[in-house]
């Protein structure tokens, strides 16, 4: 399955990139109901090849997972789950400068549910939950990047 989301934030691409590549941003823009916790990350900023272990409520249950970060271009990175609740999870984060004080944030997610969750039957629920999560991410990103001094 694919899930796509995009929005603009009124600040420079440099500010958006700096915010999104700090590991702490994950806890700031994830809905509190997920209870996201960073279990292990040997760096304060994302870098190519970084392994990050997280925990939180995913697919209705508390889970732990590890993702690998790949810097795949100027203002683009990928987080790919290497073990966790999804059979496949690949999230491409892309940031594009619209103008000097306006940045487009683009999220493209490819995911596949494990068979033991009823596969296709759960996709609608997961898609709705992803939309709620990404709506929260949008509001938190805009709030934090347009109201705080970077």
Secondary structure topology:
Layout: E1 2-9, H1 13-20, H2 25-29, E2 37-40, E3 51-58, E4 61-73, E5 76-83, E6 88-99, E7 102-112, H3 120-147
Antiparallel strand pairs: 1-7, 2-3, 3-4, 4-5, 5-6, 6-7
Task: Please tell me about this protein's structure.
The chain has 150 residues and is α+β, with helices and mostly antiparallel strands. 27% of the residues lie in helices and 43% in strands. The protein is built from 3 helices and 7 strands, in the order E-H-H-E-E-E-E-E-E-H. It has helices at residues 13-20, 25-29, 120-147, and strands spanning 2-9, 37-40, 51-58, 61-73, 76-83, 88-99, 102-112. The protein is globular.
- Strand order in the sheet with the most strands: 1-7-6-5-4-3-2
Helicity range: 25-40%
Shape, per Cα inertia axes: globular
Strand content: 35-45%
The helix count comes to: 3
Radius of gyration: 15 Å
Largest sheet: 7 strands, antiparallel
State the order of secondary-structure elements, H for helix, E for strand: EHHEEEEEEH
Estimated structural class: alpha+beta
Number of strands: 7
Low-pLDDT runs of 5+ residues are none
Summary keywords:
single chain, 150 residues, alpha+beta, 7-stranded antiparallel β-sheet, 3 helices, 7 strands, globular
Quick structural gist:
With 150 residues, this protein is of the alpha+beta class. The protein is 27% helix and 43% strand. A hairpin with a 2-residue loop joins strand 4 and strand 5.
């Amino acid at each position: 399955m694919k899930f796509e989301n995009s929005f603009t934030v009124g600040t420079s691409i440099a500010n958006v990139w700096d915010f999104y590549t700090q590991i702490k941003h994950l806890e700031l823009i994830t809905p509190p109901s997920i209870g996201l916790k960073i279990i292990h990350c040997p760096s304060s900023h994302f870098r190519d090849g970084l392994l990050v272990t997280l925990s939180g409520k995913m697919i209705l249950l508390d889970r732990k997972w590890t993702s690998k970060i790949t810097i795949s271009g100027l203002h683009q990175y990928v987080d790919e789950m290497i073990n966790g609740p999804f059979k496949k999870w690949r999230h491409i984060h892309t940031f594009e400068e619209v103008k000097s004080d306006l940045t487009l944030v683009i999220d493209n997610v490819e995911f596949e549910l494990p068979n033991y969750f009823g596969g296709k039957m759960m996709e609608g629920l997961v898609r709705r939950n992803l939309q709620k999560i990404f709506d929260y991410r949008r509001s938190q990103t805009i709030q934090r990047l347009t109201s705080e001094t970077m």
